């Protein structure tokens, strides 16, 4: 029995050692990856937005990976949160058949990176500084029609999704999706037929009067104040509010402002 207990202790000790070695390997790999990223940091496009006009600058080319493969799907990551971009890049770097060729922190940068690198797929966040997301999609589809646009978002907004598809987005994936699902979505995006743009659906969601009401809502005005400002009755303001909420799929004033801003119907407050 003593021998059995000793054997059991030995087995558990070896298992702990294996776990510790595995954890140490992961820490060393993460440190090495961070060190490599630091060495190449001057080529990180997200940190050099001022050089976008020079086609030979490495920050415009966005080619800061050492290993290339003709069979890889090339990707540009566009998100205004650096930590999320870092995690996404690490996830894709570890995946087979995907090569990240650039990054962007604004919609304007995303457009410039696509023109500079001509990636197979643009991973695009909805809420970034700069021009509205619908304008970004339209510009990319017009100037780089071979690039597929995959929306990476936490939002589950049917109205917004319909307009993004109408603008030319090839698909959607959640920011919380596991690596395998993201890689599958990237490969699926390049396999789908050329997305059909529906500019008549993208042009505008709200009428001119509804935009006026929406801008005043964004400024925090009450229905009475909006009515006085536009010389209309409170009842008319309420009808406009109902139409606005219905078109945007909004559940509150705050939600309406957020969704109208995403669609470019109003300037971000």
UniProtKB/TrEMBL annotation:
CDD domains given in the database record: LuxR_C_like, REC_NarL-like
PANTHER family: HTH-TYPE TRANSCRIPTIONAL REGULATOR YHJB-RELATED, NARL SUBFAMILY
Gene3D superfamilies: 3.40.50.2300
Domain Response regulatory: start-end pairs: 74-190
Keywords: DNA-binding, Phosphoprotein
GO biological process: one example: phosphorelay signal transduction system
Limits of the HTH luxR-type domain: 199-264
Name of the protein in question: Two-component system response regulator
Classification lineage: Bacteria, Bacillati, Actinomycetota, Actinomycetes, Micrococcales
The keyword Membrane belongs to this UniProt entry's keyword annotation: no
Alphabetical list of InterPro entries matching this protein: CheY-like_superfamily (IPR011006), EvgA-like (IPR051015), NreC/VraR/RcsB-like_REC (IPR058245), Sig_transdc_resp-reg_C-effctor (IPR016032), Sig_transdc_resp-reg_receiver (IPR001789), Tscrpt_reg_LuxR_C (IPR000792)
Compositionally biased tracts (Basic residues): 8-21
Region described as Disordered: spans on this chain: 1-57
Organism annotation: Agromyces badenianii
Modification 4-aspartylphosphate occurs at: 125
């Amino acid at each position: 029995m003593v021998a059995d207990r000793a054997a059991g202790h030995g087995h558990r000790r070896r298992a702990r050692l294996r776990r510790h070695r595995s954890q140490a390997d992961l820490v060393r790999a993460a440190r090495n990856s961070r060190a490599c990223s630091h060495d190449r940091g001057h080529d990180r496009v997200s940190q050099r937005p001022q050089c976008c006009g020079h086609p030979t600058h490495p920050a415009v080319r966005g080619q800061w990976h050492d290993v290339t493969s003709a069979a890889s799907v090339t990707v540009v990551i566009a998100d205004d949160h650096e930590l999320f971009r870092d995690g996404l890049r690490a996830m894709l770097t570890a995946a087979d058949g995907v090569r990240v060729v650039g990054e962007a922190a604004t919609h304007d940068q995303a457009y410039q990176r696509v023109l500079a690198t001509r990636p197979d797929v643009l991973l695009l966040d909805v809420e970034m500084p700069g021009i509205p997301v619908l304008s970004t999609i339209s510009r990319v589809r017009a100037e780089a029609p071979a690039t597929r646009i995959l929306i990476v978002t936490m939002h589950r907004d049917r109205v917004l999704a319909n307009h993004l598809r109408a603008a030319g987005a090839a698909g959607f994936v959640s920011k919380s999706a596991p690596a395998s699902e993201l890689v599958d979505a990237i490969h699926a995006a390049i396999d789908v037929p050329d997305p059909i743009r529906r500019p008549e659906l993208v042009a505008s969601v709200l009428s001119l009067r509804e935009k006026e009401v929406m801008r005043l809502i964004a400024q925090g005005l009450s229905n009475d104040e909006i009515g006085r400002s536009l010389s209309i009755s409170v009842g008319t303001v309420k009808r406009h509010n109902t139409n606005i909420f219905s078109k945007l799929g909004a559940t509150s004033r705050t939600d309406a402002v957020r969704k109208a801003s995403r669609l470019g119907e109003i300037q971000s407050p």
